[in-house]
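Let's practice the habit of predicting before peeking. Look at the sequence and jot down your guess about where helices and strands might fall. Then scroll down.
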Amino acid sequence: MSDHTAGQPATPGDPEGIDPSVLDELTRLRDSIDNIDAAVVHMLAERFKCTQQVGHLKAAHRLPPADPAREARQITRLRQLAESAKLDPGFAEKLLNFVIAEVIRHHETIARSDNGPNGPNGPKGPEGAPR
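Done guessing? Here is the structure:
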């Protein structure tokens, strides 16, 4: 028999006294959350594959790692998407700003490695050949 009295919540991790249908629903919802989290991770991985390619293209053409105009357009776009999806636009903006900061960090690293003294786009040697 349960130590819980009617109307008092069970303690976390103690399912005794909780209606089994509630536990089933909780499990179903958590499984759904886990699947969504996995999808988010995979989508971010795909996004970063694309941004890595952008970083190499920018480095090859000596473009700056950051593009503030593009970033502002993306933030505006994502806020609108968030509103239509009934997600807090402020949260969506914070998330995108975090992602953008990471992308810029990657682009800076790529630019250093691609354009450094020994990189394929680095300074030319004495005969004009890449070092």
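How did you do? Residues 123-131 have pLDDT under 50 and may be disordered.
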